[in-house]
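Session log. Operator J.P. requested a structure for one protein chain; no other inputs attached. Running the standard single-chain path with C-alpha cell output.
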Amino acid sequence: MSPNASAGGKQHLAHSHAHEEDIPGTVNLNAAEGDDTGYGQALFPVPAEDPNDPLQWSNFKKTMILIICSFYSFLANAALIGPSPYIDLWAEEFNISPTKASELISYPNLAFGFGSLIFVPLYLKIGRRPVMLISLIVFCAGIIGASQCTTYGGLMAARVIHGFGSCVCEALPVQLVNDIFFLHERGERIGYYTVCLCLGTFASLPAGYILAGGYGWRLFFYVEFAFGAALLILAFLFVEETSYDRVSAMLLSMHASESEKASDGIGSQVLTENVDARIPPRKSFAKTLSLWGRVDHDVPFFTMMARSFTYFLVPQALWVIASFGINIGLLALAYSYTFPILITSPPYNWTVINSGLFAIAAVVGYALAVPFTSSSDRLAAYFTKRNNGIREAEMRLGVMLPAMLIGPAGIILYGFAAEKSLPWVVYFVGGAMSYFAAYFYFSFTLAYAVDSYHSNTSEMLIAMNLGKQAISFGFGLKLLTWVTESGYAVVMSGIFGGVLLANNLVLLVFMLWGKRIRRFMSTTWLARLHSSSIKEVVTH
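Structure written below.
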C-alpha cells in the first residue's frame, strides 16, 4: 500500500507496527489499530512519518523509477546479447574464428558483472541517483564508440566499456525495489524488473533484421545509443535519490511524540498542529533534480568490496548466484551462440537474417510466465495469514515447484534436437520451456534472498553480480569448442541439463530446511560480521 492523498488534500502517510523477529527473514506482520496494510497485513519496513521517505512516495513516482531502471536493464542486456547474430560477420570482417568472435559477447558480460564491485559501493557512498546518471553516460559513450570501431581490439574495448558502465543496471533496480517498496510488494516488482532483464535476449531478433534492410551491424549500436540518451534524460527528470536515513528520522519523530505526550492539558487541536508541524514538507521538484545524492561518509568503500565476497558463504545468496549464472549461461549465451550456427547449417539452411528468430522462444516463454508475477507475494500472504501473521522468507517458494523440472526438460530437449537434427520447432519448444522456468528462478530466488538478508542487500548484490557473470562466462567461453568435440547431446542435454537440474532441486532444501539454515547462519561469525556492517534504511 502506498501513500495517497486524503480527503482533506494532504498526503496520507503510511503507518505500521510490523517488526522483524530474532531470525533474519522472519517478520511479524500483525497489524495494530490504525496500521496501513497490504494483503491484510502490516507494512514492512516501517516507514518514517516523513513524505520524503521513499516508502511514502506516490505510486506514480515509484512506478516511474521502476520503469526507468527496468528498461535500463533491458537496454544494457540487449546491448550485451543482441549482437550475437553478428558473430559470423565479425569473424569474417576481422579475419578471426567464430570462437574468437564470440568473445565479443563473453568478455563484455564478464565486465558487466565485475563492474558491480565498484559501482555498488559507490552508490552507497554518494547516492543512487548520481551513480545511475554516471552509469548511463559511460554506457552511451561505450555504445557510440562501438558503432565507430573498425578493428577487433577496438570493438572489444568499446564493448567492455559499455558493459562495465552499465553493470549497475542489475544491482540498482533490486536496491531501489528494496528502498521504495514494502515487503508484500517486492516479489511482483522484482518480477517486472526480471521481465525487462530477460527480454534483453529479444534484441537478437531486430539485430538480425537490421541486416535484412541492407544495413550493417553498426546500426544496432546507433539504435541502442538513441534509446540510451533518451533514458538518460528520463532518469535525470524522474529518478530521485532513494537513499534515506530512516532510523534517524524515526528517532526524531519518536522524541517529538514523547515530548507531546509529556505536555498534559494541551487541547487536541494544538496537539494536531504540533504533529503537523514536525512533519517536514515534501521536496520541490527542482530539489529532486539535484545531481548530488545523499553522501554517506561512514561507508567503508574498499572494506565493502572485500566484505562482499563473504556472501558466497551465505547459502541463500549462493543459490541466487548459481541460479542466475547457470540460467544466463544457458539462455543468454549458450542458446545465442549455438542457434544461429545450427539454423544456418544443413538441414535447415536459414539465412543469417533469420537466425535471430530464436528470440521468439524467449518472448513466448516469458509471456506465459508473466501472469504468475504476483503469485509468490500472494502465496506468502496466504501462508502468513495461516501462520498468525508471522511471515517466513520461504513462504513464497512453493510457486517455483513446476519450474523446477520444466527448465531442465527444456534444455535436454534442445540438446537432442541439435544432436539429431530434429525439426526446427523443437528448438523453440525447448527454448520456451527454459525461458518460462528461468523467469521463476530469476524473480523468486532473488526475492527470497532479499527477504532473508534484506539488511545487507547492497553487499549481497555485489557478490551476486560477480558470481553469476563469472559462472555464465564459464558456460559460454568455450561452448562452441565443447559441442564440436563432444556433441550437443553430451554438452547441452547431459552436462548443462544436469547442472541446471541439480541447482533447481536445491529449492526443496530451502522449502524444507530454509528457516533452520537461517537460524544457524544467524549464530555464525558471518552474521556478526554482516550485522556490524548494516548501512541500510530498514527499521527493526
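Operator note: The longest helix spans residues 488-521.
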